[in-house]
Specification:
This protein is an alpha+beta fold. Helices cover 35% and strands 20% of the residues. The longest helix is centred in the first third of the chain and has 15 residues, at 3-17.
Length: 471
C-alpha cells in the first residue's frame, strides 16, 4: 500500500470512528500485534476502535471496497493466532473493546444480550446480579470477551454440564464483509425457520463477519456447590470416578478436570498453588457439583466419594470446606499454563477423543512422546468429562528451548496421528486460526471443507474478513 492510499484509508476510517480511535503508532498498540505465546507477530495499518454496530458496518463497507483486510480482536487471549494481523502492515486490527454495553437481561426468557467487547467476567457478574448463571468459565475470563468467545466457540471447565459456547448462544448480531448487519439477537429457544444463520458465526473466528453482540442463555443460579480434589492411580480410575459421580449426582456434575502428576508438581513447585493433598498420586481430579436445592448436595457428594473409596477407585480426597479452599483448588488447575511457561519450552496439543478413549490416548501418546524426545515431560490436564485433554509436552530439564521447540511440527504430527486413529479432533476448543490452518486442510473431510470454502466465498468474496485464518 503506497503512502497516498494509506493516508486516504486512514482519513476514511477516522471519518467513521473519530481520529482518536484510529491508532497508527504501533507503540501505542504493540500488545495487539502479538498473540499471548509470542508465536505470531504482525503489523497493521491501524488499530481501529468502533463504538457501535453502525460504525463496524461502515468500517466493513469501506474496507471491502478498498480491499483492506479486517482482523477482529477482543481480549487477545486466543492461542492459535486467529486474532493477529499478518506482516504486510496493510490490514487493520478492529478492536471490539468499546462495544461494552449489556443491552438487556431478561430473567423470564433467561437470556442476556451482551455486546462483543463485554468481558466474560462482566457477563458472569451481570447474570449473577439478576440471580442467574451464565455458565461459560475459563481461565482467561477476566480478559477474554463475549465476541471472542462466540467467534472461537470457547469451551472451558463447565462443558460437561452446559456445553460449549455454541450451546449457550440464542442469537447473534454480526456485520458482514459488505457492511450488511445480520440482526439475529433472538430470545427464542425454538425457531425452526430454515438455516441456523447464527451458527455460521459461532466458531468462524471472524472469517465470515464481525460478531458485534450475542444473546446468551442463562440458567438458574445454583443454591449449593460442592468441590473436591481427588488423588487416584490412573485415567482409567478417573473414568470410574466420573461414572460414580454421575450415578449419584446425575446432571449435577458441573466440572470434572483431570490433572497429571507432572502438571500438579510443576504448579506446586513453582509456588503458584498449594498441594491440596498430603501424599503424592499419579493422577488427580478436580470435581465439582452444584444443585438448585440448598440442602442435600453435601451429603450426596460425600456419599459419591465414599462409594468411590469403597470400590478402590480413589486413594485420597479433600472436600472444600470453604469458598477460599474451593478457590485454592481451582487456583492449582488454572495455574498450570503459567507453570509450563516457567518450565521452559512447551509444545501444545488441544485435542479431544471420545470420553472413554481418553486413557488409551494418554497411554499411547505418552509412550510415543517419551520415545521421540527422551526426558520430555508430559503435562496432561483438562476436561475429562467432555474428552478434551490439553496434552502438552514440556522440554527436558536443562534442554535447549529453541532446539526443543524446533521439533514442534514433528511432535504435533506424532500426537495428532494418534488422535486421528482414535477418531478425535486436533482442535477441541482453541480453534484453528493460523496455527492449525494447514492441518485442517489436510485432515478435514473434503466435502465438509468444500462447504466451508463455498460459504466463505459467498459471504466474503473479496477475502477481507480475517484473511489467512482457518482456510
Amino acid at each position: 500500500m503506497n503512502a497516498t492510499t494509506r493516508n486516504a484509508a486512514l482519513a476514511a476510517l477516522e471519518g467513521v470512528v473519530g481520529a482518536r480511535h484510529v491508532l497508527t503508532d504501533a507503540a501505542l498498540f504493540a500488545g495487539a500485534l502479538v498473540e499471548p505465546r509470542g508465536l505470531y507477530r504482525g503489523k497493521a495499518l491501524a488499530l481501529v476502535r468502533p463504538g457501535s454496530t453502525r460504525e463496524v458496518a461502515a468500517i466493513a463497507a469501506f474496507c471491502n471496497q478498498a480491499r483492506i483486510g479486517i482482523v477482529p480482536q477482543g481480549g487477545n487471549t486466543g492461542l492459535v493466532g486467529g486474532q493477529t494481523p499478518d506482516s504486510s502492515g496493510d490490514q487493520i486490527v478492529l478492536s471490539t473493546q468499546r462495544l461494552k454495553v449489556i443491552r438487556e437481561i431478561d430473567p423470564q426468557a433467561d437470556v442476556m444480550v451482551c455486546e462483543a467487547g463485554v468481558t466474560l467476567a462482566e457477563a458472569q457478574a451481570a447474570a449473577l446480579a439478576a440471580d442467574r448463571l451464565f455458565p461459560l468459565s475459563l481461565a482467561a475470563e477476566g480478559t477474554c470477551t463475549i465476541g471472542g468467545n462466540v467467534s472461537t466457540n470457547a469451551g472451558g471447565v463447565t462443558v460437561i454440564a452446559y456445553g460449549n459456547t455454541r450451546d449457550l448462544v440464542a442469537g447473534v448480531e454480526a456485520v458482514l464483509a459488505d457492511g450488511q448487519v445480520v440482526h439475529g439477537l433472538s430470545k427464542l429457544r425454538k425457531d425452526n425457520t430454515g438455516y441456523d444463520v447464527k451458527s455460521l458465526f459461532i466458531g468462524a473466528e471472524g472469517t465470515l463477519g464481525v460478531v458485534t453482540a450475542a444473546s446468551l442463555k442463562l440458567f438458574p443460579n445454583p443454591r449449593a456447590r460442592a468441590t473436591a480434589f481427588v488423588g487416584l492411580a490412573s485415567p482409567d480410575r478417573a473414568l470410574e470416578l466420573l461414572g460414580v459421580a454421575r450415578e449419584r449426582l446425575g446432571g449435577g456434575v458441573t466440572s470434572f478436570e483431570l490433572i497429571g502428576r507432572t502438571a500438579h508438581d510443576i504448579t506446586v513447585g513453582n509456588g503458584l498453588a498449594r498441594a491440596p493433598l498430603r501424599g503424592a498420586h499419579a493422577w488427580y481430579v478436580l470435581m465439582e457439583a452444584s444443585s438448585q436445592s440448598p440442602q442435600g448436595l453435601d451429603e450426596a457428594f460425600g456419599a459419591a466419594l465414599e462409594t468411590a473409596f469403597e470400590r478402590g477407585i480413589i486413594e485420597d480426597a479433600a472436600i472444600a470446606a470453604s469458598l477460599d479452599q474451593r478457590h485454592e483448588f481451582w487456583r492449582l488447575r488454572e495455574s498450570i499454563p503459567e507453570a509450563q511457561i516457567r518450565e521452559g519450552g512447551s509444545i501444545k496439543h488441544d485435542v479431544s477423543v471420545a470420553v472413554g478413549a481418553v486413557p488409551a490416548f494418554i497411554e499411547e501418546a505418552t509412550r510415543a512422546v517419551e520415545a521421540f524426545e527422551p526426558g520430555a515431560r508430559v503435562v496432561a490436564f483438562g476436561h475429562l468429562g467432555d474428552g478434551n485433554i490439553h496434552y502438552n509436552v514440556s522440554q527436558p530439564v536443562g534442554a535447549d528451548k529453541a532446539a526443543f521447540l524446533a521439533r514442534w511440527d514433528a511432535m504435533n504430527e506424532l500426537v495428532h496421528g494418534i488422535v486421528a486413529r482414535l477418531g478425535g479432533s486436533f482442535s477441541a476448543e482453541h480453534g484453528v486460526g493460523r496455527l492449525k490452518r494447514d492441518l485442517l486442510a489436510h485432515t478435514k473431510d473434503p466435502a465438509s471443507l468444500a462447504v466451508m470454502r463455498q460459504i466463505k466465498a459467498a459471504l466474503d468474496p473479496n477475502g477481507i474478513m480475517n484473511p489467512g485464518k482457518v482456510l
